[in-house]
Amino acid sequence: TILIATGIHRPNEGEELIELLGEEVARDYRVVNHRARVPEEQVLVGHTSKSTPVWIDREYVRAELRVLTGLVEPHLMAGFSGGRKAICPGIAGLETVKIMHGPKVLEHPNAREGVLDGNPFHEEVLEMAHMVGVDFVLNVSLSEDRRITGVFAGDLEKAHLEAVQFVRRQVEAPLPEPADVVLTTSAGYPLDLTFYQAVKGYTAAIPAVKEGGTVVLAARCEEGLGGPEFSELIRTTTPDELMREIWREDFFVVDQWQAEELCRGLRKAEAFFFSEGVAPEDVCSWVRPFSSLEEALDEALGKHGPSSKLAVIPEGPYVLPVVRR
């Protein structure tokens, strides 16, 4: 059985499965999409040391041999993707995901790109992976043109850490000081399909920009803002309103965590946004939309003056800016 670790996102179907698995595998093997929002398909395997309930897909729990696959790259809350992340949010139930993607975890300063040590998301999800059991892990790293540059297999922690160390050497970009303006992207398909995904390009640029600076984000977003819950949330609230609501125990909206990540970045730097797939009038008030990239960049540089410093990050979320004074 091949269990697609969708997290809480929509299932992969039709041509997407062929793109993901290849025609022969998609045709000849049993393929199941994880459905986090269907309670009867999850099993409670216990609680973490922080009392988080661990709900995991029944298909995985009853398997005799459990192999995780994944891509290792910088991740906006887990530090790096891959490894344990296939368990949560990959095949975890909604009740587990919404805690791990809640403000008690995400507001921690170490829950960010490139950080594993002291990262509460990484540490607790790794604990979950050990609880449910992982027999083997196969992770890869990719180049700019999406070709495999490294294969890391074996023990869950050891293989993933080797992958992280390899990827870190490839993606870290030193800067002498933060810039006034950062021009970035969401690095093309698939992270530029929606504004929801494109947020990752914005948050990855935050370490490179000074306090009060401007991040100019370009993303195609041919599928619009994102899921209905996320779209409604950012259109009907302000960042301040969301952060007041999000701490209430009775408040929960699917995909609120991506809006919260955007809020975290906006505390440091404003966001200018250009997209060919989302009309300026359809963009939420959290970011400032522009009808052309040139217009956005001219406005940003003009705002910060003739001596303003510009940093350009073409690969957005796949780069870790490191300021070394």
Inertia-based shape: globular
Mean pLDDT: 95
CATH class of the largest domain: Alpha Beta
Number of domains: 2
SSE class? alpha/beta
In whole angstroms, how far apart are the ends? Answer: 51 Å
Strand content: 15-25%
Helical percentage: 25-40%
The appropriate CATH architecture of the largest domain is 3-Layer(aba) Sandwich
Question: Mind summarizing the main beta sheet?
Answer: 5 strands, parallel
| Total strand segments | 16
CATH 4th-level superfamily of the largest domain = LarA, N-terminal domain
Provide the descriptors you would attach to this structure in a database record.
Rossmann fold; alpha/beta; 2 domains; 2-enoyl-CoA Hydratase, Chain A, domain 1; 325 residues
General description of the model:
- This protein has helices spanning 15-21, 23-28, 58-61, 94-100, 103-106, 120-132, 156-171, 195-205, 228-236, 239-245, 256-266, 293-304; strands at 2-4, 31-33, 42-47, 53-57, 67-71, 74-75, 79-80, 136-142, 148-154, 172-175, 179-185, 209-218, 269-274, 288-290, 310-313, 320-323.
- With 325 residues, it is an alpha/beta fold.
- It folds into 2 domains: 2-171, Rossmann fold, CATH 3.40.50.11440; 176-323, LarA, C-terminal domain (2-enoyl-CoA Hydratase, Chain A, domain 1, Alpha-Beta Complex), CATH 3.90.226.30.
- A 5-stranded parallel sheet has the order 14-13-12-11-15.
- A hairpin with a 3-residue loop joins β6 and β7 (79-80).
- α8 runs parallel beside α11 and α10 packs across α11 (256-266).
- The protein is globular and about 65 Å long.
- The chain starts with a strand and ends with a strand.
- The mean pLDDT is 95.
